[in-house]
Amino acid sequence: MIAHFIETVLMKMADFGLDLHSGGSSLHYLPTTVSATYEDETRNHKVREMMQVFGAPHSFFFPRGHAGGGNSNHASERSGMLSFTTEMGGSGTVTPHCLKICSDGVLRVLHHIGILKTSRVPPNDATSRMLHAPTFDYFTYASELGLFEPTVELGDEVKAGDRAGFIHTPETPWQEPTEMTFTSDGLVLCKRIPGRVERGDCLFHLGTDLA
Fold this sequence. Notes:
Strand content: 25-35%
Number of helices: 4
Number of strands: 14
CATH class of the largest domain: Alpha Beta
Distance between the termini: 39 Å
Order of helices and strands: HEEEHEHEHEEEEEEEEE
Shape: globular
């Protein structure tokens, strides 16, 4: 498989990696750098340092065990490569704002690790807000099939118990919509884009400040 070749051959040849993503067509993120949370605190510290150099407005650490260890962050750990990923917007689109964050960030990281030998690197005047999800309670998933009506926006600060939105069933319009609520406090980092949802679809995920 391609993923097996990347992890066992290509990643073992590299010291550093950048895995550039957006939220795809189903999700939209605030511009964010992303990493797994590792048991090795030295590795966590080095990743945070690289994220600050990249300079996205937000940096986020998924809880341990996210994706069952099957994403590129965990693969890089197994291969001895230091890396992080990005989530730059989404909705199946590209924006000038996200493109500039990504382009400038890549140049700064390449300079930071000694690959780019130049002093003409885009300045980084901002501090990335470090966030994490200590548990999976920071994710909100659809409990029903239907049309999702969100009641919060990206960048909102919410509390546990706050309304996240409603799932409507247009096929049975007399049925009361299902209210979705948040189960943790945090910043809304990511939201679902398509209105149609099935059980288990991610609607939102939150981040809280990393101590």
